[in-house]
Amino acid sequence: MAIQAGVIGATGYAGAELVRILSGHPQVELAAISSVSYAGQPLSAVYPAYYGLCDMVCGTEEEVLDKSKVVFAALPHGLSQEIAKKCYDTDKVFIDLGADFRLKRLEEYEQWYGVKAIYPELHEEAVYGLPEFFRDKIRGKKLIANPGCYTTAVPLALVPALKAGLIEKDGIIADCKSGVTGAGRKSTQDTHYPELNEGMHAYKVGGHRHTPEIEQTLRSICGEEVKVTFTPHLLPVNRGILATCYAHLKAGTTLAQLQQTYQEFYQNEYFIHVLPQGMRADIHHVRCSNFCEIELHTDERTGMLVAVSALDNMVKGAAGQAVQNMNLALGLPETTGLTMFPPAF
What we know:
Blueprint: E1 3-8, H1 13-23, E2 28-34, H2 43-46, H3 61-67, E3 70-73, H4 81-89, E4 93-96, H5 106-113, H6 120-125, E5 127-128, H7 131-138, E6 143-145, H8 150-163, E7 172-178, H9 193-196, E8 201-202, H10 211-222, E9 228-234, E10 241-248, H11 255-265, E11 272-274, E12 292-299, E13 304-311, H12 315-330
Parallel strand pairs: 1-2, 1-3, 3-4, 4-6, 5-6, 7-9, 11-12
Antiparallel strand pairs: 7-10, 8-9, 10-13, 12-13
Helix pairs in contact: 1-12, 8-10
């Protein structure tokens, strides 16, 4: 029997990507979708590429909750807590693509997002859904906090070296670039085409909300506090995250040692490709897929690791990872519905 899945917030970029992926999942039936802005309209009226493929009408949140066993919420922060409570009370799987359950320290959540944690017990119950690191905790769970794009790309680039003790915990820098879909569907001055095209700029320097989330993942791996200087930039492209991460190498660490460490760490991870020397991680290579590429370098003059990761911010950085988490939660093969290759060009 097909799994009944629903998407709340289906007309945002992440929500629409969820619909695309779930529609091709062999064990899922898309039961209902919702949108506040486009209520009563077919999804194909919002995204014409879906015409004849998904003409489902955008209903209400209540309809999604009523018809679905698995509920995905692709909403801005602050809007998922009540939905999570309803799902928890009715024994549904709830996967939140927003930020409401990502931070375990409630004071950090309230400080960085300006929202009160109204159900602290649900924050305790939620598991952080980065499968490559927390797979065993995700299996069978009903409340999953799906990481975002930067908070996936940076730990994937750094964790093997950090866990193996090959880099220092101080002085880590994450210099990241994102496609404009990461800013959401609602246009702003910065994402207006004449402002964005042929340009690139940093934003929220020294205070981006994803900083404590990145640090939380690294801390959970090494068991100690880790501070990261994280700076995001907006690229004039639709999709992709490129994270260039710098860390001080421990004395005597070689590039060959790092390469072997990463290859062994990720050898059983279907979605992670540690590239051989001479190949480069490129957002073009992972577009529309759930894969992440990682390339490694050392700067012998400065004693630095340079680890570069590339992924699609809408797939491995959002909707694809959410489906990966659903598969784990329901005991399905983890790659189900996610094995599509990236386009070659």
